[in-house]
Amino acid sequence: MFFSTIPDKERRISHRSRTLRVESLERRELMDGYGLHLSLPSVSALVAEGEQPAVFAQQSSVALVTGNVRNDSISRVGEVDRFTVQASAGQLFQVAIAPNGNLNAQLRVLDSIGRVIVSAASTQTFARNFSAGTAGTYIVEIQGVNHRSVGTYRLGLESLSRPSADAKALPIGSIANGQLSGSVQVDQFKVAARAGQVFQVALATQSGLDATMRVYAPGGRMLLEATTKSAAARNFTATAAGEYIVQIQATNLTSTGSYRVGVESLSSPSADAKALSVGGFNNGQLTGSVQADQHRFLANSGQRFHLDLAPLAGLNAKIRVFEPGGRLVLEGLTSSARTYNFTSSIKGEFIVMIEAANLTSLGSYRLGLRRS
User: In which order are the strands placed within the sheet that holds 151-159?
Assistant: First the structure.
């Protein structure tokens, strides 16, 4: 443990044989070769009645791993908690803190040579991003502002340029259920993509959870952001091959609740897409929020098709048709039987996607395909 009584403000240090004199804007201290002599006010003059004297202590550094949330505390005035982060050059991070009690938290991030690259303070939950300019060990410091407050806190770290250690795979055509159970919790899902592949990612929250969904490309560039208290869907295009991050968190970083997140490919059929034959029918059932059913069929350029959609049991359904490559060629909403017509402009495998108009309603439907 390291103790210091010398403030970090402007200093001038001059050497004299056996005497080292440290001059500060706040006070002057004299250290000789045999001891340390300080000219300071008494402790009673510095500390109000009932307060704990400041000791300005730093704990030994603890490793902070991406994807983890730590519960910790500043238990005495002047304490500084230090955490190490191992970073690759160019790696992008999000660090978040939720102070509790009377803690007015000061968060600082120091780079591999000790320069402060992030400094923020609040009694409320907040998050900051930082980028590692060079590879090495970075330090996250937590302390009370002016070394005067104490309390507990939760601290979380996520990698944004590549998936965090606890990121879960989200296969195309699948839906994952998640639970935000505490402040600063962030859930990450990783999606493997080809360059140019087009996706739809959808989020539905429960119990009034106000959640934010973000998608990051390899390297950390944010491609989309959506906030919802019910359900939302967004499209994105993979700019390069690699693993993309879908990140879910409470919008205020403190609320808790459950959610469902799903991903579909729009430029080529998802893995679970069903074949739809000309002259045939497929029956479908939407059994949960953010479910999207895909049906695929082959077409030649210039062919004219008729799609017959019949939602059942009051389902208000959305139908969309995507040509190879992901371009939308038809879209409609209906709660009763209806026929949609379109002409294929290119040759290849087309996608018909059926989902609830509000992304949350349940029900069954019947889909048919005819050709003129």
Answer: 69-74, 151-159, 92-99, 126-131
